Amino acid sequence: MSPSIVPSPNHIVHLVLCDLGPNGQAFIETDPGEADRFSIVSNMIIGRYGRPVRVVAFNALDGTCRDVSAEIARELLMTIEMDGLPEGTQAFVQDHMPCATGDTDGTKLPSQVRMAAS
């Protein structure tokens, strides 16, 4: 009998949506054993995702799904300095935490923050 692909009870699965340039956007294929929050953050730190756009967490058992991008961006900044992150991960953090780039009044749109930081 093959193992079930349904997550175990109370297991939250995280998927990363990436910008693939001219090919559009896609959720990156992820081994179920590496779809936890810790693995996603670790993979972002090492640059596994070239240009991450969003992180979505879901729990099939209780039927919930939500965007956790801002939480992941905050966790990245608590783990490592901004300049220690790969370029694509820096852009992700800037998009989801504009205050990390000095935009404390929130007047810049995320894309404006990215351009200003480039």
Could you please describe the fold and organization of this structure?
With 118 residues, this protein is an alpha+beta fold. It has helices spanning 37-46, 69-79, 87-96, 110-117; strands at residues 13-19, 25-27, 52-59, 64-67. A hairpin with a 5-residue loop joins strand 1 and strand 2. The longest helix has 11 residues, at 69-79. The N and C termini lie far apart (52 Å).
- Helicity, as a percent range: 25-40%
Q: Strands of the biggest beta sheet: in what spatial order? A: 2-1-3-4
Q: What order do the SSEs take from the amino end to the carboxyl end, as H and E?
A: EEHEEHHH
Supply Rg.
Answer: 15 Å
State the shape: globular
Number of strands: 4
Largest sheet: 4 strands, antiparallel
Count of separate DSSP helical elements: 4
Q: How many angstroms separate the termini?
A: 52 Å
Measured by DSSP, the beta-strand proportion falls in: 15-25%
Helical/strand content category: alpha+beta
Low-confidence stretches: 103-118
